[in-house]
Specification:
single chain; about 0% strand; mainly alpha
Length: about 110
């Protein structure tokens, strides 16, 4: 069994990798508006939510892996990271809106 430090800080590279992963998943499912609304609405509770992830890690770890639970709880520990995530989702959405549609609906 591999042990790791629950108190370890998240590096900038790891933080950016986690944010990009969430941005791509959000874009893949076209959930940008819902995710931004949810994050903005719950931004004041980010620290409480991250601590709740740690509290529930006994249930979450078998599903997502203890390292992922630790990393995402560290990501959502600060409002700055949530704001970074929101900005990246908005930037990704703006890029996809400005790009031409690969499957345009042609009039019959």
């Amino acid at each position: 069994m591999r042990f790791f430090d629950w108190d370890a800080e998240l590096s900038d590279e790891e933080r950016d990798r986690l944010i990009e992963s969430l941005v791509e998943k959000t874009h893949r499912y076209k959930m940008e508006s819902a995710v931004i609304f949810f994050l903005e609405m719950h931004k004041p509770l980010t620290y409480v939510a991250s601590q709740s992830m740690l509290l529930g890690s006994g249930f979450l770890s078998p599903l997502f892996g203890p390292e992922n639970v630790q990393k995402y709880s560290k990501l959502f520990e600060t409002r700055e990271n949530v704001e970074r995530l929101i900005r990246r989702i908005e930037e990704r959405y703006a890029l996809s809106e400005s790009a031409p549609d690969p499957n345009p609906i042609l009039p019959s």
